[in-house]
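Subject: two folds for Thursday's group meeting

Dear M.,

Sorry for the delay on this. The cluster queue was jammed most of the week, so I only got both jobs back this morning. I'm pasting them in the order they finished. Each block is the input sequence followed by the predicted C-alpha cells. Could you check whether the formatting survives your parser before we put anything on slides? The first protein is the one we discussed after the seminar.
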Amino acid sequence: MPALGAIIAICAGCFAGCSTSDCDDLQNTLPMAGFFSTDSTPTPTTLPRLTLYGIGAPGDSLLLDSALAVSEAYLPFRIDSRTTSFVLDYLQGSMRDTITFTYDLSPRFSSMECGVVYDYTPTAITHTRTLIDSVTCPQGIITNVPGQNLRIYLKTSPLQ
C-alpha cells in the first residue's frame, strides 16, 4: 500500500505541474501609462517625484505616494463606470494635472482557467495642461496583454 500512496502523490504532482497558470499575470486588464517628452522625437522620460490617485474611486485610491523617478504607472480603470479620472500631483499639491478616460467596456472570454477579462476601448481622453501635452492609447484598445497601453506626453523635460 505505501507504493500506491507514492504513485498517487507522483500523479498528483504531474497533473499540478502540467496545469499552466497564465491567469496569475493576465487575469485582469490593468492599463499601464508611460511618460514621454514632446521633443521632435518623443522619448521615454522620468518624473522626479509623483503622487498619483484616482478620483471618486471606492476606498483608498492612492496609487503612488511621492514616488521618485517614475517612468510609468498603472492606471486601473473602473468596471462599474464608463469613466475613470486620475490626478497626477508633481510637486506635493502646487502643480498637478487631471486625466479623465471615457471608454467602452467589453467582457471577453479568455480561457477556462482565466474566465472573463475586460477590454477597454477609449472613446475620449481629456486632461488639464499643466505639464501634460497629450494622452494617447496607441493600439486603440487596452487588453490584458502586459506592457504600456497608454502614453502621457509631457510639455517639457519634467521639472528639471
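Second protein, same layout:
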Amino acid sequence: MSVIWQLFFGFFRVGCFAFGGAYGAIPLIRDVVLSHGWLDDETLTYFIAVSESTPGPIMVNLATYIGSTQAGFWGAVAATVAVTLPAFVLIIIIIAMMRNAVENQYVKAMLDGVKPCIAGIILATGGYMTVKGCAAAKPFSPDIQGMTIAAVLAGILLVRGKRKKKISPILLILLSACLGICIYGM
C-alpha cells in the first residue's frame, strides 16, 4: 500500500474516533504515527507544538504537517481530507436527519457522560507532554531549562487563576517562544 493511502486510512481512523476536539485526538494521532514509523515521539511532540501555535485547527494542522513530511503535497492533501471527512459527513447526516437531537434526553445524557472522559484525556496528554518536555534525552535525566519554562508558565497561570483573570492563549504562546529563545538560545 502506498504511503498516501496509509496516510489517508490512518488519519481517517483518527477522524472517525476523535471525540472532544484536537487535544482528545492527540493520543490517537500519536498511536497512528508511531505505529507506521512516520515520526519518532520527540519529533511528533515538536509537530504538536507547531500545530498549536499556527492558525487553524490543531488536528488538521498536525495531519497536514505529517502528511507533507511523508509524501509531500499529495500526502498533506490525503491526511487533511481524511481527518476532516468523518466529521464533515457526520455533520451533514446529523443536520439532515436529527435537527432536534440536542433536545433529546438520551443525547444530552451521552454528551454529559463523555465530557469528563475528554477532560481526562486532555489532562493526561498535557501531563505527558509536560513530563516529556522536562526530560532530557537520557532516561531519568531532568531538563532544567524545560522545567524552568514549565514552572514559569505554571506560575503565571496560577497567579492569574487566583485573580480570576484569564490569560490569552496567544500571550502564552508568545511568552513560551520568548522563554525558549532566552533559555535555549538561538
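Two things I noticed about the second structure. The chain is about 80% helix and 0% strand. The mean pLDDT is 85.

Cheers,
T.
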